[in-house]
Design goal:
The protein is mostly helical and 147 residues long. The protein is built from seven helices and four strands; from the N terminus they run βααβαββαααα. The chain has helices at residues 5-24, 28-50, 60-63, 86-91, 96-101, 103-115, 129-146, and strands at 3-4, 55-56, 69-70, 75-76. Strand 3 (69-70) and strand 4 form a beta hairpin. Helix 1 (5-24) packs antiparallel against helix 2, helix 2 (28-50) packs parallel to helix 7 and helix 6 packs across helix 7.
């Protein structure tokens, strides 16, 4: 069942709030991991809006189904990517120019792209706690700009 963008946006904000809460308890690995998902969701929302979608696929199988149609908009899911690739999501979003055109946001994105991936769930970060705090701050800035 497709997820309305408003629900997906609420999820992104909750994940970011949870990440901040974890960071306050010095659980930086988990905070950055969860914060990265908040950014991923925000970028997927931006991509969906760019393509006139009001809902997003809930399951990857729906995403790969060429017959998937967003019933709220009547639009096929062209250009909706079920991926964790932040750069691809950014390129397909409606905020690409905003992020890449601003020196600070561009630096934030490059820093995040270098250090975050869903595979982080299997390992401890190899960067300092100070860098993880900076990473989470960069994630928070970008999520707030996107949403």
């Amino acid at each position: 069942m497709p997820i309305p963008l408003s629900d997906f946006e609420a999820t992104a904000k909750k994940r970011l709030d949870d990440a901040i809460f974890l960071a306050r308890d010095c659980r930086y690995d988990s905070a950055v991991y969860l914060g990265g998902y908040a950014l991923e969701i925000a970028l997927k929302i931006s991509m969906a809006k760019k393509n006139g979608l009001h809902n997003v696929p809930e399951k990857k199988s729906e995403c790969n189904n060429p017959s998937y149609v967003d019933n709220a908009s009547g639009s096929s899911k062209k250009k909706y990517h079920c991926t964790h690739d932040l750069l691809l999501l950014l390129k397909e979003s409606n905020v690409y120019g905003v992020i890449m055109g601003d020196i600070k946001y561009n630096k934030d994105f490059d820093f995040i792209h270098k250090h975050w991936s869903p595979e982080n769930r299997y390992k401890n970060q190899r960067i300092s706690n100070t860098k993880m705090i900076e990473l989470l701050e960069a994630i928070e800035r970008l999520v707030r700009v996107i949403l």
